[in-house]
Amino acid sequence: MDERDWLILKELFAKKNITKTAQSLYISQPTLTKRIQQMEKEYDVSIINRGARGVEFTPQGEYLAKCAEEMIARFQSIKETVLNMEDEVSGTLRLGVSNYIATHKLPHMLKLFQEHFPNVNYKVTTGWSQEVFNQVYHRDVQIGIVRGEYEWPESKLLLFEENICIVSKEEINLENLPSYPRIDYETDTLLLQIIDNWWSRSYSHPPLIGMEVDKGVTCKEMVINGLGYGILPSTLIEEEEGLFRVNLTDKNGAPIVRKTWMLFHEETLKLKSVSEFVRFVERIDFIK
Questions:
Q1: Are 159 and 280 in contact (CB under 8 A)?
Q2: For the HTH lysR-type domain, which residue ranges apply (predicted)?
Q3: Which of 126, 138, 194, 198 is least crowded, fewest Cβ atoms below 10 Å from its Cβ?
């Protein structure tokens, strides 16, 4: 069995559906079925049974599927080690990046890195910071960039800090903030906790939610158009002029900030592509 076979088993075990698995791997259903039959012939066992509810794995098939993740990681490690034997910095850099950073910061940074190391390829996955943290923790990615504080026992690099602020089109009286319409948006759990903790410490009444939107960028646009106020990270509004803004502060009057970190396992620095990327990020002004 080769790496592709193990990937098929992993995806099929997760989806329990031939059609969906073939679509996710960009292969035809007949090809997928043939590969499974070849695996069954190689091990001389039945791996799956097809039933009314879809694909069901036999005990032998379930065991092989559970080995798939380990085998895929092993193949990846072998590739990276072989490529790392060369003096040239090459290979695939696997990055997990929070949504905002992936959209607004990462493209320019990778462009600069590519100019120095043109033979490096990239696999970038995006999501909420908690999802990215889980990816780097489980070594699905080599480097994770997250916003907020996570318990991380290994190497990390502080990229920047940002204030959390109240933002509105017109000046508002903070004492009467609970009576103003607020624009809420989906974001990571840690930022929600920061906002909720500040609110419960500052006001005895819940906020008046006038609108709910999908993300912070959308909230910002609604604020610009005078549809309510938002509580947003400062980097999201740094280029916007003419907005009323007040930084949130803790009980001692100090600004409440959110930090963005780059997380990685120390052992991954043995790979030239990872070590060069970490050194590169240490040298640049990430906030630009």
A1: no
A2: 1-58
A3: 138
